[in-house]
Amino acid sequence: MSKIVLSHIDKFYGDNHVLRDINLTIEDGDFMTLLGPSGCGKTTTLRVVSGLERPQNGVMTIDGEEMINADLAYFAEPSKRGLNLVFQSYALWPHMTVRNNIAFGLKIQKLPRAEVEKRVADSLRMMRIEEYIDRYPNELSGGQQQRVAIARAVASNPKLLLLDEPLSNLDARLRVDMRSELQRIHRELGTTVIYVTHDQVEALTMSTKIALFKAGEISQVATPMDLYMNPIDLEAADFIGNPRINFLEGAGHMDGAKLHVSCELAEYEFDRSDMTEQEIPESGDFPVVVAIRPEQIHLTTEKSTDGIPVKVYANQPAGSETLVSLQGAGGTDFLAKEIGLAQYDIDQTVYAHIAPEKINIYDAKSTRLIKRTR
Amino acid sequence: MKRKQHRPFNPIRLKNQILNVVKNPFNMIVAISLVVLFCLIVIPLLQMIATTFTVAKSELRRIRGAEVGDFTLYYWKYILTSGMAGATLWGPLKNSLVVGFFTVLVSVPLGSVLGWLIVRTDIPGKKLLGMLVVIPYMVPSWCKALSWLAVFRNATSGSLGFLAGLGIPIPDWLAYGPVAIVLCMSLHYYAFSYINVSSALRSINSELEEMGEICGANKLQILKSITIPLVLPSVLSSIIMTLSKSIGTYGVAANLGNRIGYFTLATKMKTFINGSPQAVGYAMSLVLIALAALIIFSNQKVVGVRKSYATIGGKGGRSTEMKLGKAKTPLMIFLVVFLFFAMVAPMFVLVMETFQITTGNGYGLNNLTLYNWIGTVDEAQRYINYPGIFRNPEFTRAIYNTVRLTFIGSILTALCGQFLGYISTRGRGKWYGSATEQLVFIPYLMSGVAFSAMYVAMFNRPRLGGLIPSLYGTFGLIVLTSVVKHFPFASRSGTSNMMQISTELEEAADINGANFWQRMAKIVLPLAKNGFISGFMLTFISIAKELDLIIIMMDKRTQTMSYLAFTYSQEGYNQMADAISVCVLLFILVCYIIANKFGADIGKAW
After folding, report:
1. Which of A49, A347, B46, B407 has its CA 20 to 30 A from that of A293?
2. Which residues in chain A touch residue B20, judged by CB atoms under 8 angstroms apart?
């Protein structure tokens, strides 16, 4: 149970600036996911937290205790930080049985033998792999090795559990199982978790908070819902969500307390209260990007006053949902998602209904969010 | 933002920075091993260079007005421009180059063809052939020289060999000198090309060749335009390796050349180092080192960049064999004949000679004896001063020395190798990693004789004001020389061993609270065990058969079996020399069989 504060962390490999002024607070009990494409610095951040890497600048505290102070060249040993780490490769010691893999750290701590036995048994039971206790890692499947790696990490009762892309080596089905497993462990142990992944579904489903990384910087820290609903910039909006969010070019101008936006589909007017702090021109037209999630576009076949007439370009029913590619009057392509099976003919004209409060508006120049969804 | 930020001086930071370095045992180990490597490799080299520019006591009379320790160009002038230069440097240098060139000419095509036959064709009995073909490499090259003498010796060196004994006149040019040396070395060093080319061939995916077939190329075209270009880099590096090895080889050249006054750089150099002026010998060994360095670096220039594709498709994949068809029988006969003449026949003659009373006198019962093995001095007092080897205390001591040297030497070498391998893998891309790698590579450039000449120059008197005592003539110096000379190979095997141990395994232990020593003991060592054992066995074999490296330092007390055989052969006790080399051979073969059990691969034993 611990609160981690990273402030002004910089990390260089040679002249390569891989972490740029990272500031992040992880509250006690959080399930914090570091999300981003590969090479964005999320694993490095995790390794800095764990103590395996030493940053050139910055301070890190765990529960108020200084663990890193680059100014004073002070770096606490990894083992003194009260944490444990699950590696992407699992890093199980191939010459030790499951029992010895898990007991290793406990024996190093010189715990009494009975206590070691008990903790090994407990963590194995928790991961539901008691029967493999005397196997060697290479006698286990990938999913079982994964469970052993987690069991080894939790056996030491860490205050902080670090997970580095732990599911990336599993097949799709096991991944879903392990997601719920990890959520349950987080709940049961109450441990603070830092979880690194490039998979947004993992991030959205498990986390209490997500830190979105971009090229060595944190671009947004938010709850999964907020991150999904209001990505901070166009890049984040594009990264989060599957199928991808629709972007439509438009023009905006401020009219007193109102924001007017016009795009190919329609014209909108938004209250100041829905807008972010992002600075925008107070007068004159400026280019904007209208962002609409595919599931926020509802289609009807009957003509109605608020329905925007569009043409069906392609229709992809996939059982639980149907993706419909559409073309606006000006020829812009966009995508709608309907729950369940839907049947449209190609080139059929349908009517799209979009609730204005479900639309994000971005400033095309700064790419930042200027209007939030509700 | 800059990587290095200027921070005002802060005593706590300084303290922490020092603690960070000192508290990490890895840093200490790196520092210590860099210092040790520097002392064992760089300083001796510099020392030897300095010796060639310094007046020694024995030359006081020849250099007018000089005092001991003065700077002089006398030695370099002696080998480069004086009236002696022809006989000292240029003649032997020419001989070395000639011998090296022809050895390459014979051994590389031989080894490459053998490699191709065994890896790529459907020749029968591949597994057995593959094993037999590398056996000659395990036989020390000087043993081959002795077998050669057993077969071809003529009246010039006193007793007759097998052929001369049959009444076939053997001219000197065949029995001794360049032809004999080239053939003996070729029969040894073809193994380089064989191992290199066969492993390159193994790594080529046969789909590449099949694609050629689909495009309509015939077998010869495929061989010419696909297979050969792909293995060319490994053929080139075999050429380089064979060249630099054969130029530096001592044992063969001395056994087959000295009797008729045919000297190579390596053999001539030894006469100077054991005699006078010593510095001339050192200067010659520097020439030898420069030559090897030149050859190897030019290799890296030419092959280095292109080498990369030799292992393309290294996953190997399927390998379909080429059908030899009608060529199968003649090729098979070629192989059998080759193996017979390269291995079986000389070995047979060598073994039989140990039972002969007079060499070259046939295998009649009246000419057979066990004297050379178990005879006593009384039985043949008029002919021989030594009892049979099993009753000869010199031989017993030689066995003891050999076993002692190989065990101590190879354990130390293998340990150091793992250690250096650990440093260079964990320091990959950092300055100390590449510094270690480069320092460790230097002994590779030196032939055995040149290397030991360097160590003799370094340790023949106390150094560092007595901190390092004079080691000349001690067993310790022989061990040290063997260990350091084998560093390049040992650390390479250590590196490949350590590469297989992912750093994450260590990091996981780190996070679980294990300190450096605990990580070493519980994680790294247990995982490195197998690689360590195979590295150990390979070094073991290599040290057991070594003659060139330690011959300068040997005397009656410290001599090994190899050296004793060499001495007997030079003294004309051929049967005894043969008997000892048979023992050495058995020793090495037994070791190799044991090594194979641990999965050691002779192909990595250079």
Report:
1. A347
2. 73, 75
Q: Which of B511, B517, B527 to mutate to test the interface with A (most CBs of A within 10 A)?
A: B511
pLDDT in the model for residue A101: 92
How far from B353 is each of A224, B155, B369, B393, B578, CA to CA, in Å?
88, 16, 10, 22, 7
Residue of chain B nearest A51, judged by CA positions: B511
Answer yes or no: is pLDDT of B381 > 70.
no
- Same domain? A247 vs A310: yes
Ramachandran bin of A215, using left for φ above 0, alpha for ψ from -120 to 50, beta for the remaining angles:
left
Q: Do A226 and A258 reside in the same domain of the chain?
A: no
Question: Who contacts A12 (Cβ-Cβ below 8 Å, separation ≥6)?
Answer: A18, A56, B3
Q: Of A76-80, B236-240, B355-359, which has the strongest mean pLDDT?
A: A76-80
The minimal CB distance from B13 to the residues A72, A94, A108 is found for: A72
Domain enclosing residue A38, as ranges: 4-238
Q: What is the dihedral of CA B162, B168, B172, B177, to 10 degrees?
A: -50
Q: Which residue of chain B comes nearest to A70, CA vs CA?
A: B13
- Is B366 at the interface with chain A, CB within 8 A? no
Helical (H) or strand (E) element with B497: helix B487-499
Q: Is B127 on the interface with A (CB under 8 A)?
A: no
Answer with the one of A205, A238, A271 that is the final residue of a domain.
Answer: A238
- Give the pLDDT confidence of B396-443 residue by residue, as tens digits: 888 899 989 998 999 999 889 888 889 988 887 788 888 888 888 888
Sheet with A369-371, strands from edge to edge, namely: A267-271, A258-263, A246-255, A286-292, A359-363, A369-371
- Are residue A274 and residue A353 in the same domain, yes or no? yes
Confidence of residue B43 (pLDDT cuts 50, 70, 90): confident
Search chain B and give the residue with CA nearest A93. Answer: B505
Most confident of A206-210, A316-320, B44-48: A206-210
Q: Where residue B587 sits, what CATH number does that domain have?
A: 1.10.3720.10
Residue B585 CA to residue B568 CA, distance in Å, equals 17
- The nearest CA of chain A is from the CA of B494 a distance in Å of 19
Per-residue pLDDT band for B382 (boundaries 50, 70, 90) equals low
The reported pLDDT for the residue numbered A234 is: 93
Dmax (CA) of chain A: 76
Nearest chain A alpha carbon to B525: A95
Q: So what's the ipTM on this one?
A: 0.81
Q: Are B434 and B309 members of one domain?
A: no
For residue B24, the chain A residues in CB contact (below 8 A) are none
Chain A residues whose beta carbon lies within 8 Å of the beta carbon of residue B5: 56-57
Report yes or no: A189 and A166 within 8 Å, Cβ to Cβ.
no
Q: What range defines the domain where residue B201 resides?
A: 84-326
> Do A82 and A65 share a domain, yes or no?
yes
Domain termination site, one of A222, A238, A254: A238
Asked if A351 reaches chain B (Cβ–Cβ under 8 Å), the answer is: no
* Omega prior to B11 cis, within 30 of 0: no
Q: Give yes or no: residues B408 and B481 share one domain.
A: yes
Chain A, chain B: beta-carbon pairs less than 8 Å apart: 81
Residues B287 and B183 in one domain: yes
Provide the shortest C-alpha distance from residue B10 to chain A (in Å).
8
Cβ–Cβ gap B512/A156 under 8 Å: yes
Give yes or no: residues A142 and A157 share one domain. yes
Question: Do A81 and A228 fall within a single domain?
Answer: yes
Given an 8 Å threshold on Cβ–Cβ distance, is A156 in contact with B514? no
Residue B511 with chain A: CB contacts under 8 Å: 50-52, 78-79, 83-85, 105
Question: Cβ B504–A87 below 8 Å, yes or no?
Answer: yes
What CATH number is attached to the domain comprising A152? 3.40.50.300
- Give yes or no: residues B513 and B410 share one domain: yes
Cis omega (within 30 of 0) for bond into B109 = no
pTM > 0.90: yes or no: no
Contacts of B512 in chain A (CB under 8 A): 79, 84, 104-105, 108, 152, 156
